[in-house]
Inverse folding.
């Protein structure tokens, strides 16, 4: 659906750049809502899922500051996220050997099992992009990467 119709736009956009901005924000919110709905029955937030994926990919203990650097949403309170994941039994924390002020975090066996359970999220994401070919998704990635170049 055209973004103008989706937001009941009455006047034309000032420019294609303004339209693209509104379209990106609208699409981000749409995608965010879909993914939150998928994770809600599993008692997991997008940020928690992001941390679990980071830890799974790390294959070694990493600090909360390293986790924050790798996160998609940089504003997240990583220490609080790790604390919640610890209470759920999905991660383990221990004092960093080199710097006692830092905490090393690893994904637990339960956390790995949970991430594996959510592997169907990958299929769900691909379904959300069902209107795009693989080539169009690649073009979209190229354009978005280009937009963020400074």
């Amino acid at each position: 659906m055209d973004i103008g119709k989706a937001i009941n736009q009455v006047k034309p956009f000032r420019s294609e750049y303004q339209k693209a901005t509104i379209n990106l924000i609208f699409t981000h919110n749409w995608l965010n809502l879909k993914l939150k709905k998928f994770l809600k029955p599993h008692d997991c937030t997008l940020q928690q899922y992001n941390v679990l994926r980071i830890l799974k990919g790390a294959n070694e203990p990493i600090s909360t500051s390293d986790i924050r650097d790798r996160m998609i949403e940089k504003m997240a309170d990583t220490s609080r996220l790790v604390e919640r994941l610890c209470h759920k039994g999905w991660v383990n924390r221990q004092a960093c050997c080199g710097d006692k002020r830092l905490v090393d975090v690893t994904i637990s066996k339960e956390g790995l099992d949970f991430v594996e359970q959510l592997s169907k999220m990958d299929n769900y994401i691909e379904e959300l992009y069902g209107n795009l070919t693989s080539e169009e998704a690649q073009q979209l990635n190229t354009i978005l990467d280009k937009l963020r170049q400074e």
